[in-house]
Structures are given as structure tokens and as C-alpha cells.
Amino acid sequence: MTEHRLFPYFLILAAGAIWGLVFSLTLIATAQGAHPLGLSAWQVVITAAFFGVVCLASGIRLFNFANLRHYVVLALIGITVPNLLYYNAAPHLSAGILSITVSTVPLFTYAIMLVLSFESLIARRLFGIVLGMIAILLLVFPDQGLSSDDASFWILLVLLCALLYSFENVYISKGIAPHTDVRELLFGSNLVAALIQFPLAIYLGVDESWTWLASDAGLAIAGIAIGSGLAYAMFFYSIKISGPVFASQCAYAVTISGVIWGIMIFSEQHSIWVWLSVVVMLLGLMLVNPDDEAELAGVGKSASVEKSF
User: Does the N terminus or the C terminus of the chain have fewer Cβ atoms within 10 A?
Assistant: First the structure.
């Protein structure tokens, strides 16, 4: 049965809407004062369980020791370190601001690929990076009415998360064989992350028992873990049926929906500078995203946002 011609649009819009919601769920998860390590530990356990079920249902090998190095690298630079930074910063920022700052991942990814000579220099895409940086500067100007007096520091912390996600994108693109199934990678990396984070949480005395999952914060973490899993599935299926160039447009949906969800759930109000930042960021993404398959290296990983949210 052939999919409807609008089905790919549905996939990227739905994935973008879910990933945009993750920013608001993060604020709910951190509102009750749970330790960032406790939040992250339960997230990776639920994510690993989700993709474990997906792998078993699809007949995919759960854990390949030949890929152990990949699991460890992704668990550190793509999950554990950015999660801890992100959950520390989230209570001090709005959902809209989080969505704008994390949307710099495609910009950073292209910049890293360029520095490492994996991408050729294209003036249009370089200007897109410049616009992205301008968008961030519009956020860190003083007196923007953000959620914290030292919001600029927390914005920079989230930008560090985006940078780590970008390094992860490059690693996936250039360091992992193309035939490796992403579902196996997500299960293996989250399992390794859980094996890192839970012993660390016990050592540090972080106590978020399984009963905590029934709280608002715990349910939000479950929503983040499962929602991201569903968004991953839709995003990668859109790559399969429509190509990475088309799928990369999901970044726009993530940015816009993140701002809209924040307004709907938390009644967030943004200054003209924040809205200007949104517009400039979207223009930057438009310029950085490749125009055709010839600009793509590593099956479109440099344009993707799959590990950003």
C-alpha cells in the first residue's frame, strides 16, 4: 500500500510537535526539585526499556559487543553529560528559550563537520551559522524578562548541551557503519548510560525510588523518554521514505512547537527580542539545511536533529 503524498509531512510535523513538547515536560519534571541525576537515570532506563521492546518486536539484536565502544561514546557525550547539564539549566529558563537554544544543533553540526573537513565550505550555510549565533545573542542581551536573573549563564549551559549533541551527530555519521540499526544503538547506549548513572546516583546518595515515577515529575520523565522514542521512529521513517534533506526540515517544527507548547502549558510571554530570535534562528536553519542530496555527507547526519531532543 502506497503512503499518501502528505504522509511525510505528517511525520516531520508530528515528530517536531512531540520533540517541542519535551521542553515543557522538562520544566514539569524539574519543578519539584528532583535531582538532575535522578531525572536522567530514570529517563535512560525507560528509554532503554522502550527500545528494548521495539528491538525484540522487530527481531533486531539487542546488544552487539562489537559496538560496545559506540554505546559508551554515545552514552557519555550524547546522553549522560548533556542530560545532567540540561536538567540543571531547565528550571532557570522557559520552554520557548530551551527550544530555541537546542535548535542550534544543526548549526553546530555543520560547523564541526566543516572544521574537520568532512564538509565543503558553502557561503550560504556559513551565513546560516552566523544567523544562529545572532539569534543566541538576542537571547543573552540583558533585561529580556527570562526566567532567571542569571539566564545568560544557563543559556550558555544549554548551548554546551547542543554542542555535545552535535559532536554525537558527527560521531554517528563518520564513526559508525551505516548499516548499524539506530534502534540497536539507542537501546545499547541508553543501557550503558543507565549502568553509569544508577551506580553514580547511589554513590552520591540520590534517592528517586521507582514510586517517584507516579509523581508529576516522574510521569513527565516517562513522557520525555517514550515521546522521544516515538519521535525518533517517525523521524527516521521520514528519512527512509523521503530522504534526509526533507526530514531535516523537522528542525523548524521543533523550534516553533517548543515555543507554542510553552505558551499553551505555562502561559509563557516573550519579549520582542525573543520573537526576533525565533525568526533569525529559523532563517539560520533554512540556510544551513542542504538543498540537495549532493550536499549531504554521512546520509544526512549533518542536517539532522535526531539526538537534539
Answer: N
- Give Cα separations from 31 to 24, 34, 36, 47, 253 (angstroms): 11, 8, 11, 21, 25
Residues 6+ apart with CB under 8 A from 127: 287
* Band of pLDDT at residue 231, cut at 50, 70 and 90: confident
Length reported for the chain:
309
Has residue 308 been placed in a domain? Answer: no
Tell me the mean pLDDT in the region 33-53.
92
pLDDT at 100 over 80: yes
Q: What angle (nearest 5°) sits at the alpha carbon of residue 270, between those of residues 23 and 11?
A: 40
Q: How many domains does the chain have?
A: 1
31 is a domain residue: yes
Query: How much of the chain is in helix, strand and coil states, percent to nearest 5?
Result: 75, 0, 25
Contact 217, 28 (CB under 8 A): yes
Domain carrying residue 149: 7-303
In-domain check, residue 134 = yes
Residue 1 lies in a domain: no
Q: Using CA atoms in the order 196, 202, 206, 212, what is the torsion angle rounded to 10 degrees?
A: 90
Largest CA distance in the chain: 55
Predicted confidence at residue 53, as pLDDT, reads: 93
Round to whole Å and give the CA distance between 165 and 156.
14
